[in-house]
Design goal:
homodimer; eight-stranded parallel sheet; Rossmann fold
């Protein structure tokens, strides 16, 4: 069984190229979302603990079963720890045997960015040039990197309540061939932007984006509203948006649309991402529409990331064999593994 | 982060001793079941796939979050593969960080045996001497090994539809200081036994144990009825038993009691294991009672196994460090891990 450490994934990305990896991931996501009916899915089982949330995200089709373990602890950075840590596993459906176990902290940042870029590609105006990113934490630069693959971004405005996070963001993205604008407030960043990506960590209902800042034509990626009691967008703004979600059953629990009663939420959304990708619905009908990708992150995205990873680790020969699966000569003779040693 | 391979667990067990490990696990299970109210639990999310089932089993208390990945594919042995493979992870609740990742195939066999022995200890007659074990697959010898820690077993009768499995069972347990009796049928094994443990893999409603074979005073561990549509005990026998389950909400979906309507099932059981261990209920009120531990396997048992393992790997210094958790110098600077490598 192949285990992919952080180091192994770093090596793989340095060889394959970050932009190539993100582009491949977008292609994989597009393919997998487009065969939505092939998957068995469920809203992710979450356990709410003091200071955060811990979740498992399972999914399967006829070939693979994937799951991710992931937490969200907004106060972790005050103790030098990351807000989100994730691990995941890919298994064969035919026999239930695991084949790949991986770090998924980096992989989650990558797939979240690739997925938002995919949605941006099919939702934002083609002439979108100015991107605003509110929340400059661990995922923020990945978002910019991926968005640049789908739109010709000439200006990136950034804002975070933590000035050190803004410093880090600027340091990582300077010299990238676009104008970097340090905004004095979320309002300054958002007003006049074409694409607004929001990824903050606070586990409360916070109006990170206010209705009055938002003008016709904007596309918003709402990524941080992803847990019961955790939203980022002023509720009155939702009324003005063409809203797309990934998977209604989970989004109504975790997304911005949790602020409506389920039956109301169902009417407020235009539909799900897979429907847009397969041309079953249209979200942006005019350059003046305000579009919102109310993204919570679903297991299918981790499935896509793990499947791509599985292909690439074979191609590049990275990873480490660590035997987590017993191999008794007789499959029914597990006991010999512990008595032979006595 | 410490990763426990099959080899590492074998080393640990050979050093600690199999019986000591099982006894420690029983003690840990007793402790954890006795503080039932400390845990956040849920029936395990299962996905039914062609040929089997794949499940995740999450649980947490205030200190640890544990989960197990486990499959059940009854046809695997015909292809030289094991029916059940499992992996698991223990994480800290305070920050969501994983601390231990382990093989759990062996560990599942060990905890299932320790748990059934714990139940047998508090349910079977004190003078029980004859054990019958129906289903001589991967878990069977572990069951005998653990049961011997709680009762003075002088005779073990065994039966499986697969003669090769019976051969293997006898080979592994010969010379153990008890009489080994190869039975010609399940009926021959069961009639007159004091303790009957049933652990077969067939994913159907099968009457592995028939009502008419069972006399007053018997204790039955029904372990293989652990999935919707998979039971082992003739329904009419259930009517005669004092039934104990682990966790009603899950057992009513997966256990022998799935054959009743939920409201009926609730009345048919005496209660849950934790209630018996904390003296809130009595199951055996007379030597003539027939008792049934309708066990499905719950996440708490994996929690106990992982916590014991965590203690022992520290004590014996086994396991392998494999970094699945990124450690950027700034917790919000995940991006530097992929751009530094470009």
């Amino acid at each position: 069984m192949n285990i992919i450490s952080v180091q192994a994934l770093q090596t793989l990305i340095s060889q394959h190229g970050l932009d190539t990896f993100l582009a491949d991931l977008m292609a994989q996501l597009r393919t997998d979302f487009s065969r939505w009916g092939d998957f068995t899915q469920m809203p992710r089982p979450a356990m709410h603990v003091p200071g955060g949330v811990i979740e498992l995200m399972p999914i399967c089709d006829q070939k693979y079963y994937a799951f991710k373990y992931v937490n969200g602890h907004p106060q972790n950075p005050t103790n030098g720890k990351q807000t989100v840590i994730a691990t995941g596993q890919l298994s064969r459906v035919a026999d239930g045997y695991p084949i790949l176990l991986s770090e998924m902290t980096l992989l989650t940042a990558l797939r979240t960015a690739a997925n938002a870029a995919l949605a941006t590609d099919v939702m934002a105006r083609k002439d979108a040039r100015i991107m605003a990113i509110i929340g400059n934490g661990a995922q923020s630069e990945f978002q910019v990197q991926a968005t640049r693959l789908v739109r010709d971004i000439t200006e990136v405005r950034y804002y975070d309540i933590d000035p050190a996070a803004m410093d880090k963001f600027a340091r990582n993205l300077k010299g990238g061939g676009f104008k970097l604008v340090r905004a004095k407030s979320a309002e300054v960043a958002v007003r006049g932007a074409d694409i607004v990506t929001v990824c903050t960590a606070c586990k409360q209902h916070v109006d990170v984006i206010k209705d009055e800042w938002v003008a016709a034509g904007m596309h918003i990626n709402g990524l941080g509203g992803d847990c019961p009691g955790k939203t980022e967008i002023e509720q009155s703004l939702l009324e003005r948006c063409q809203i797309l979600v990934e998977y209604f059953e989970q989004s109504v629990i975790e997304g911005e649309i949790q602020r409506f009663e389920p039956a109301v939420a169902r009417r407020k959304i235009v539909g799900e991402l897979h429907e847009l990708l397969t041309n079953k619905i249209t979200v942006r009908t005019s350059p003046k529409d305000i579009t919102l990708f109310d993204s919570v992150g679903i297991a299918l995205e981790d499935y896509s990331a793990l499947c791509l990873l599985q292909r690439l680790v074979t191609q590049y020969g990275v990873g480490e064999v660590c035997e987590l699966i017993p191999t008794p000569s007789n499959p029914k003779d597990l006991f010999s593994l512990v008595v032979a040693k006595r």
